[in-house]
Amino acid sequence: MKLLVTGGAGFIGSNFVLYMLREHPNYEIINVDALTYAGNLENLQSIESNSRHTFIKADIADVKQMENIFAQGIDVVVNFAAESHVDRSILAPDIFVRTNVMGTQVLLEAAKKYQITKFVQVSTDEVYGSLGPTGLFTEETPLMPNSPYSASKAGSDLLVRAYHETFSLPVNITRCSNNYGPFQFPEKLIPLIISRALNDEAIPVYGDGLNIRDWLYVEDHCRAIDLVIHQGKSGDVYNIGGNNERTNIHIVETVLQQLGKPLSLIRYVKDRLGHDRRYGIDPTKLETELGWKPAHNFETGIKETITWYLNHQEWMERVQSGTYQDYVKLQYGQRMGDSGA
Ligand code: NAD
Ligand code: TDX
After folding, report:
1. Angle between helix 248-259 and helix 298-311 axes, rounded to 10 deg
2. Is 70 exceeded by the pLDDT of residue 341?
3. pLDDT-based confidence at 340, cuts 50/70/90?
4. What percent of the chain has pLDDT over 90?
5. Choosing from 19, 128, 149, 180, which is the catalytic residue?
6. Cβ within 8 Å of residue 125, ≥6 positions away
7. Which CATH number fits domain 2-180+217-240: 3.10.450.50, 3.40.50.1100, 3.10.180.10, 3.40.50.720?
8. CB of 204 closer than 6 A to ligand 2?
Protein backbone atom coordinates (compact mmCIF):
# COMPACT_ATOMS: atom_id res chain seq x y z
CA MET A 1 0.00 0.00 0.00
CA LYS A 2 1.17 3.52 -0.85
CA LEU A 3 0.16 6.01 1.80
CA LEU A 4 0.22 9.78 1.43
CA VAL A 5 0.67 11.34 4.86
CA THR A 6 0.37 15.13 5.00
CA GLY A 7 1.83 17.05 7.94
CA GLY A 8 4.11 14.11 8.70
CA ALA A 9 6.88 16.31 10.12
CA GLY A 10 4.61 17.66 12.85
CA PHE A 11 3.81 16.16 16.23
CA ILE A 12 1.14 13.54 15.52
CA GLY A 13 2.06 13.10 11.85
CA SER A 14 5.67 12.16 12.61
CA ASN A 15 4.58 9.76 15.34
CA PHE A 16 2.15 8.24 12.82
CA VAL A 17 4.79 7.83 10.10
CA LEU A 18 7.15 6.08 12.54
CA TYR A 19 4.29 3.91 13.80
CA MET A 20 3.07 2.83 10.33
CA LEU A 21 6.56 1.99 9.02
CA ARG A 22 7.09 -0.15 12.13
CA GLU A 23 3.68 -1.87 12.08
CA HIS A 24 3.39 -2.45 8.33
CA PRO A 25 6.70 -3.66 6.88
CA ASN A 26 5.36 -3.61 3.30
CA TYR A 27 3.84 -0.11 3.25
CA GLU A 28 5.38 2.82 1.43
CA ILE A 29 4.86 6.34 2.77
CA ILE A 30 5.00 9.63 0.87
CA ASN A 31 5.27 12.30 3.53
CA VAL A 32 4.30 15.81 2.44
CA ASP A 33 4.88 18.72 4.77
CA ALA A 34 5.39 22.46 4.20
CA LEU A 35 7.77 22.61 7.19
CA THR A 36 6.12 25.55 8.91
CA TYR A 37 7.40 26.48 12.40
CA ALA A 38 5.66 23.28 13.61
CA GLY A 39 7.24 20.91 11.09
CA ASN A 40 10.59 19.42 11.99
CA LEU A 41 12.59 16.91 9.97
CA GLU A 42 14.53 16.04 13.12
CA ASN A 43 11.41 14.11 14.21
CA LEU A 44 12.07 11.75 11.29
CA GLN A 45 15.81 11.31 11.80
CA SER A 46 15.48 7.63 12.76
CA ILE A 47 13.99 6.78 9.32
CA GLU A 48 16.31 8.96 7.23
CA SER A 49 17.67 5.96 5.34
CA ASN A 50 14.42 3.99 5.17
CA SER A 51 13.66 3.44 1.47
CA ARG A 52 9.94 3.03 2.23
CA HIS A 53 9.72 6.66 3.34
CA THR A 54 9.94 9.64 0.97
CA PHE A 55 9.75 13.18 2.27
CA ILE A 56 8.52 15.98 -0.01
CA LYS A 57 8.45 19.59 1.14
CA ALA A 58 5.20 20.94 -0.31
CA ASP A 59 2.13 22.98 0.57
CA ILE A 60 -1.21 21.12 0.58
CA ALA A 61 -2.93 24.26 -0.72
CA ASP A 62 -0.74 24.27 -3.85
CA VAL A 63 -2.78 22.59 -6.61
CA LYS A 64 0.16 21.92 -8.95
CA GLN A 65 2.37 20.42 -6.25
CA MET A 66 -0.45 18.16 -5.07
CA GLU A 67 -1.32 17.06 -8.62
CA ASN A 68 2.29 16.01 -9.19
CA ILE A 69 2.32 13.99 -5.98
CA PHE A 70 -1.01 12.23 -6.59
CA ALA A 71 0.07 11.45 -10.15
CA GLN A 72 2.74 9.14 -8.66
CA GLY A 73 -0.08 6.79 -7.60
CA ILE A 74 -1.49 6.98 -4.07
CA ASP A 75 -3.79 4.43 -2.42
CA VAL A 76 -4.69 6.13 0.86
CA VAL A 77 -4.44 9.73 2.12
CA VAL A 78 -4.18 10.63 5.81
CA ASN A 79 -4.46 14.39 6.21
CA PHE A 80 -2.73 15.70 9.35
CA ALA A 81 -1.43 18.92 7.76
CA ALA A 82 -2.95 21.89 9.53
CA GLU A 83 -2.37 24.98 11.54
CA SER A 84 -3.10 23.44 14.93
CA HIS A 85 -2.69 25.97 17.74
CA VAL A 86 -5.82 27.68 19.09
CA ASP A 87 -3.91 30.67 20.51
CA ARG A 88 -2.29 31.37 17.14
CA SER A 89 -5.73 31.20 15.47
CA ILE A 90 -6.87 34.02 17.76
CA LEU A 91 -3.86 36.15 16.76
CA ALA A 92 -3.98 35.37 13.01
CA PRO A 93 -6.99 33.39 11.72
CA ASP A 94 -6.35 33.80 7.96
CA ILE A 95 -3.65 31.13 7.61
CA PHE A 96 -5.97 28.67 9.40
CA VAL A 97 -8.60 29.09 6.69
CA ARG A 98 -6.01 28.82 3.95
CA THR A 99 -4.33 25.64 5.17
CA ASN A 100 -7.12 23.86 6.99
CA VAL A 101 -10.04 24.64 4.68
CA MET A 102 -8.52 25.42 1.29
CA GLY A 103 -5.66 22.94 1.67
CA THR A 104 -8.09 20.14 2.49
CA GLN A 105 -10.20 21.03 -0.54
CA VAL A 106 -7.14 20.84 -2.82
CA LEU A 107 -6.35 17.38 -1.43
CA LEU A 108 -9.95 16.22 -1.84
CA GLU A 109 -10.01 17.34 -5.46
CA ALA A 110 -6.78 15.48 -6.24
CA ALA A 111 -8.03 12.43 -4.32
CA LYS A 112 -11.19 12.43 -6.43
CA LYS A 113 -9.30 12.84 -9.70
CA TYR A 114 -6.83 10.05 -8.92
CA GLN A 115 -9.48 7.77 -7.38
CA ILE A 116 -7.75 6.98 -4.12
CA THR A 117 -9.26 4.15 -2.05
CA LYS A 118 -9.55 6.02 1.27
CA PHE A 119 -9.20 9.63 2.50
CA VAL A 120 -8.83 9.96 6.27
CA GLN A 121 -9.32 13.46 7.64
CA VAL A 122 -7.65 13.87 11.04
CA SER A 123 -9.98 16.19 12.90
CA THR A 124 -10.52 17.21 16.49
CA ASP A 125 -13.07 17.10 19.29
CA GLU A 126 -12.92 20.92 19.29
CA VAL A 127 -15.35 21.01 16.33
CA TYR A 128 -18.11 20.00 18.77
CA GLY A 129 -17.58 23.11 20.88
CA SER A 130 -17.64 23.11 24.67
CA LEU A 131 -19.37 20.73 27.10
CA GLY A 132 -21.10 21.58 30.38
CA PRO A 133 -20.22 19.62 33.51
CA THR A 134 -21.91 16.43 32.26
CA GLY A 135 -22.23 14.48 29.01
CA LEU A 136 -19.73 13.48 26.31
CA PHE A 137 -19.21 14.22 22.61
CA THR A 138 -20.59 11.45 20.38
CA GLU A 139 -20.30 11.31 16.59
CA GLU A 140 -23.85 12.75 16.47
CA THR A 141 -23.08 15.84 18.57
CA PRO A 142 -23.75 18.95 16.42
CA LEU A 143 -20.71 20.89 15.26
CA MET A 144 -20.41 24.12 17.26
CA PRO A 145 -16.82 25.34 16.93
CA ASN A 146 -15.85 28.36 19.02
CA SER A 147 -12.34 29.35 17.89
CA PRO A 148 -11.05 30.25 14.43
CA TYR A 149 -8.97 27.04 14.67
CA SER A 150 -11.93 24.77 15.42
CA ALA A 151 -14.13 26.60 12.89
CA SER A 152 -11.52 25.96 10.19
CA LYS A 153 -11.33 22.27 11.20
CA ALA A 154 -15.14 22.02 11.11
CA GLY A 155 -15.04 23.62 7.65
CA SER A 156 -12.63 20.97 6.41
CA ASP A 157 -14.74 18.20 7.96
CA LEU A 158 -17.79 19.47 6.09
CA LEU A 159 -15.89 19.52 2.80
CA VAL A 160 -14.75 15.93 3.39
CA ARG A 161 -18.34 14.93 4.08
CA ALA A 162 -19.52 16.77 0.95
CA TYR A 163 -16.97 14.97 -1.29
CA HIS A 164 -18.33 11.69 0.03
CA GLU A 165 -21.99 12.61 -0.46
CA THR A 166 -21.54 14.32 -3.83
CA PHE A 167 -18.74 12.35 -5.49
CA SER A 168 -18.79 9.08 -3.48
CA LEU A 169 -15.21 9.66 -2.39
CA PRO A 170 -14.38 6.99 0.22
CA VAL A 171 -13.67 8.99 3.37
CA ASN A 172 -13.47 8.83 7.13
CA ILE A 173 -13.25 11.66 9.64
CA THR A 174 -11.58 11.03 12.98
CA ARG A 175 -12.14 13.41 15.90
CA CYS A 176 -9.59 13.01 18.62
CA SER A 177 -9.16 14.62 22.02
CA ASN A 178 -5.95 16.37 23.21
CA ASN A 179 -2.81 14.39 22.37
CA TYR A 180 0.46 14.34 24.29
CA GLY A 181 3.74 12.49 23.88
CA PRO A 182 7.10 12.76 22.09
CA PHE A 183 7.76 15.50 19.49
CA GLN A 184 4.95 17.84 20.55
CA PHE A 185 5.83 21.46 19.87
CA PRO A 186 6.33 23.31 23.19
CA GLU A 187 3.63 25.91 22.46
CA LYS A 188 1.09 23.26 23.61
CA LEU A 189 0.31 22.87 27.32
CA ILE A 190 2.24 19.76 28.41
CA PRO A 191 5.59 20.39 26.66
CA LEU A 192 5.24 24.08 27.51
CA ILE A 193 5.03 23.23 31.21
CA ILE A 194 8.00 20.86 30.96
CA SER A 195 10.15 23.29 29.01
CA ARG A 196 9.42 26.29 31.22
CA ALA A 197 9.70 24.34 34.48
CA LEU A 198 13.11 23.00 33.49
CA ASN A 199 14.21 26.63 33.08
CA ASP A 200 12.49 27.65 36.35
CA GLU A 201 10.20 29.97 34.39
CA ALA A 202 6.64 30.82 35.46
CA ILE A 203 3.92 28.48 34.14
CA PRO A 204 1.03 30.46 32.63
CA VAL A 205 -2.37 29.00 33.58
CA TYR A 206 -5.27 30.57 31.70
CA GLY A 207 -8.29 31.77 33.71
CA ASP A 208 -9.09 29.70 36.79
CA GLY A 209 -7.22 26.59 35.58
CA LEU A 210 -10.38 24.50 35.82
CA ASN A 211 -10.94 23.99 32.10
CA ILE A 212 -11.00 20.29 31.30
CA ARG A 213 -9.30 18.46 28.47
CA ASP A 214 -9.49 14.71 27.67
CA TRP A 215 -5.89 13.52 27.20
CA LEU A 216 -4.73 10.73 24.87
CA TYR A 217 -1.22 9.37 24.41
CA VAL A 218 -0.23 9.99 20.79
CA GLU A 219 0.54 6.35 19.96
CA ASP A 220 -3.01 5.35 20.94
CA HIS A 221 -4.25 7.96 18.45
CA CYS A 222 -1.98 6.50 15.74
CA ARG A 223 -3.32 2.99 16.33
CA ALA A 224 -6.88 4.27 16.06
CA ILE A 225 -6.16 5.89 12.69
CA ASP A 226 -4.53 2.66 11.47
CA LEU A 227 -7.76 0.81 12.35
CA VAL A 228 -9.90 3.44 10.65
CA ILE A 229 -7.84 3.22 7.43
CA HIS A 230 -8.39 -0.53 7.25
CA GLN A 231 -11.81 -1.06 8.83
CA GLY A 232 -13.56 2.32 8.92
CA LYS A 233 -16.94 2.30 7.18
CA SER A 234 -16.78 4.73 4.29
CA GLY A 235 -18.41 8.08 5.08
CA ASP A 236 -18.30 7.51 8.83
CA VAL A 237 -16.96 9.67 11.65
CA TYR A 238 -15.01 8.07 14.53
CA ASN A 239 -14.39 9.79 17.86
CA ILE A 240 -11.07 8.95 19.54
CA GLY A 241 -10.44 9.43 23.24
CA GLY A 242 -9.30 7.47 26.26
CA ASN A 243 -11.57 8.76 29.09
CA ASN A 244 -8.77 10.79 30.68
CA GLU A 245 -10.45 14.06 31.58
CA ARG A 246 -8.26 16.31 33.71
CA THR A 247 -8.38 19.99 34.72
CA ASN A 248 -5.51 22.11 33.43
CA ILE A 249 -4.35 22.86 36.95
CA HIS A 250 -4.17 19.13 37.69
CA ILE A 251 -1.93 18.70 34.63
CA VAL A 252 0.32 21.57 35.70
CA GLU A 253 0.63 20.31 39.28
CA THR A 254 1.27 16.70 38.17
CA VAL A 255 4.07 17.69 35.80
CA LEU A 256 5.69 20.07 38.30
CA GLN A 257 5.60 17.42 41.02
CA GLN A 258 7.12 14.78 38.73
CA LEU A 259 9.89 17.18 37.75
CA GLY A 260 10.53 18.04 41.41
CA LYS A 261 9.70 21.71 40.76
CA PRO A 262 7.79 24.00 43.17
CA LEU A 263 4.11 24.81 42.66
CA SER A 264 5.09 28.44 43.26
CA LEU A 265 6.03 28.54 39.55
CA ILE A 266 2.30 28.55 38.71
CA ARG A 267 1.07 31.91 37.47
CA TYR A 268 -2.65 32.48 36.80
CA VAL A 269 -2.91 34.75 33.74
CA LYS A 270 -5.59 36.38 31.58
CA ASP A 271 -7.89 33.78 30.05
CA ARG A 272 -7.84 32.68 26.41
CA LEU A 273 -10.59 34.43 24.42
CA GLY A 274 -13.55 32.10 23.84
CA HIS A 275 -11.85 29.44 25.99
CA ASP A 276 -13.79 26.16 25.74
CA ARG A 277 -14.61 24.91 29.24
CA ARG A 278 -14.66 21.16 28.83
CA TYR A 279 -14.01 18.45 26.23
CA GLY A 280 -14.88 14.81 26.78
CA ILE A 281 -15.01 12.07 24.14
CA ASP A 282 -17.30 9.06 24.02
CA PRO A 283 -15.16 6.49 22.13
CA THR A 284 -17.79 3.69 22.24
CA LYS A 285 -18.14 3.45 18.45
CA LEU A 286 -14.40 3.01 17.87
CA GLU A 287 -14.19 0.47 20.70
CA THR A 288 -17.19 -1.62 19.73
CA GLU A 289 -17.00 -1.44 15.91
CA LEU A 290 -13.23 -1.45 15.38
CA GLY A 291 -12.01 -3.07 18.63
CA TRP A 292 -9.79 -0.12 19.65
CA LYS A 293 -8.54 0.20 23.21
CA PRO A 294 -5.93 2.68 24.45
CA ALA A 295 -2.74 1.10 25.79
CA HIS A 296 -1.87 4.06 28.03
CA ASN A 297 -3.72 5.76 30.82
CA PHE A 298 -2.77 9.30 31.78
CA GLU A 299 -0.58 8.27 34.71
CA THR A 300 1.67 5.97 32.63
CA GLY A 301 1.59 8.18 29.55
CA ILE A 302 2.65 11.34 31.35
CA LYS A 303 5.59 9.56 33.01
CA GLU A 304 6.83 8.28 29.62
CA THR A 305 6.33 11.71 28.09
CA ILE A 306 8.28 13.55 30.80
CA THR A 307 11.11 11.02 30.49
CA TRP A 308 11.20 11.57 26.72
CA TYR A 309 11.47 15.35 27.10
CA LEU A 310 14.15 15.02 29.76
CA ASN A 311 16.13 12.86 27.32
CA HIS A 312 15.57 15.25 24.42
CA GLN A 313 16.34 18.66 25.88
CA GLU A 314 18.44 19.61 22.87
CA TRP A 315 15.48 18.89 20.56
CA MET A 316 13.42 21.21 22.75
CA GLU A 317 16.04 23.96 22.65
CA ARG A 318 16.42 23.72 18.88
CA VAL A 319 12.68 23.93 18.09
CA GLN A 320 12.32 26.92 20.38
CA SER A 321 15.04 28.98 18.78
CA GLY A 322 14.39 31.69 16.17
CA THR A 323 10.88 32.87 15.37
CA TYR A 324 9.25 30.89 18.18
CA GLN A 325 10.63 33.47 20.61
CA ASP A 326 8.71 36.22 18.79
CA TYR A 327 5.50 34.25 19.28
CA VAL A 328 6.21 33.73 22.99
CA LYS A 329 6.66 37.49 23.43
CA LEU A 330 3.41 38.22 21.59
CA GLN A 331 1.38 35.53 23.37
CA TYR A 332 2.70 35.80 26.92
CA GLY A 333 4.45 39.19 27.10
CA GLN A 334 1.38 41.19 28.18
CA ARG A 335 -0.24 38.29 30.02
CA MET A 336 2.80 37.90 32.25
CA GLY A 337 3.76 41.55 32.59
CA ASP A 338 6.56 41.15 30.04
CA SER A 339 8.69 39.42 32.64
CA GLY A 340 7.94 35.73 32.29
CA ALA A 341 8.17 35.46 28.51
P1 NAD B 1 1.42 20.22 14.38
O2 NAD B 1 1.17 21.69 14.33
O3 NAD B 1 2.44 19.68 15.30
O4 NAD B 1 1.79 19.70 12.92
C5 NAD B 1 1.17 20.18 11.76
C6 NAD B 1 2.09 19.88 10.58
O7 NAD B 1 1.43 20.33 9.38
C8 NAD B 1 3.44 20.57 10.65
O9 NAD B 1 4.48 19.67 10.38
C10 NAD B 1 3.36 21.65 9.58
O11 NAD B 1 4.61 21.96 8.97
C12 NAD B 1 2.40 21.00 8.59
N13 NAD B 1 1.71 22.00 7.76
C14 NAD B 1 1.12 23.15 8.16
N15 NAD B 1 0.63 23.80 7.09
C16 NAD B 1 0.88 23.03 6.00
C17 NAD B 1 0.60 23.17 4.61
N18 NAD B 1 -0.05 24.24 4.12
N19 NAD B 1 1.00 22.18 3.77
C20 NAD B 1 1.69 21.09 4.26
N21 NAD B 1 1.98 20.94 5.55
C22 NAD B 1 1.58 21.89 6.42
O23 NAD B 1 -0.01 19.58 14.66
P24 NAD B 1 -0.39 18.21 15.40
O25 NAD B 1 -0.63 18.49 16.81
O26 NAD B 1 0.55 17.16 14.99
O27 NAD B 1 -1.82 17.95 14.72
C28 NAD B 1 -1.92 17.19 13.53
C29 NAD B 1 -3.38 17.12 13.12
O30 NAD B 1 -4.13 16.52 14.16
C31 NAD B 1 -4.01 18.49 12.88
O32 NAD B 1 -4.86 18.38 11.76
C33 NAD B 1 -4.80 18.77 14.14
O34 NAD B 1 -5.92 19.58 13.87
C35 NAD B 1 -5.21 17.37 14.55
N36 NAD B 1 -5.43 17.14 16.00
C37 NAD B 1 -4.44 17.48 16.90
C38 NAD B 1 -4.64 17.21 18.25
C39 NAD B 1 -3.59 17.55 19.29
O40 NAD B 1 -3.86 17.43 20.48
N41 NAD B 1 -2.38 17.95 18.91
C42 NAD B 1 -5.82 16.61 18.67
C43 NAD B 1 -6.79 16.28 17.72
C44 NAD B 1 -6.58 16.56 16.38
O1 TDX C 1 0.09 28.49 28.28
C2 TDX C 1 -0.98 27.85 28.30
N3 TDX C 1 -1.74 27.89 29.44
C4 TDX C 1 -2.94 27.25 29.56
O5 TDX C 1 -3.60 27.33 30.60
C6 TDX C 1 -1.44 27.05 27.20
C7 TDX C 1 -0.64 26.94 25.94
C8 TDX C 1 -2.65 26.40 27.34
N9 TDX C 1 -3.39 26.51 28.47
C10 TDX C 1 -4.69 25.79 28.53
C11 TDX C 1 -5.62 26.05 27.38
C12 TDX C 1 -6.37 24.74 27.24
O13 TDX C 1 -7.48 24.73 28.12
O14 TDX C 1 -4.40 24.40 28.50
C15 TDX C 1 -5.37 23.69 27.72
C16 TDX C 1 -4.64 22.97 26.58
O17 TDX C 1 -4.17 23.96 25.70
P18 TDX C 1 -3.42 23.61 24.33
O19 TDX C 1 -2.27 22.72 24.64
O20 TDX C 1 -3.19 24.88 23.59
O21 TDX C 1 -4.51 22.68 23.60
P22 TDX C 1 -6.03 22.95 23.16
O23 TDX C 1 -6.33 24.37 22.99
O24 TDX C 1 -6.90 22.15 24.10
O25 TDX C 1 -6.02 22.25 21.70
C26 TDX C 1 -5.29 21.02 21.47
O27 TDX C 1 -6.15 19.91 21.49
C28 TDX C 1 -7.04 19.76 20.41
C29 TDX C 1 -4.52 21.06 20.16
O30 TDX C 1 -3.67 22.18 20.15
C31 TDX C 1 -5.46 21.08 18.98
O32 TDX C 1 -4.73 21.01 17.77
C33 TDX C 1 -6.37 19.88 19.07
O34 TDX C 1 -7.33 19.94 18.05
Report:
1. 50
2. no
3. very low
4. 94
5. 149
6. 137, 175, 176, 177, 178, 214, 239, 241, 279, 281
7. 3.40.50.720
8. yes
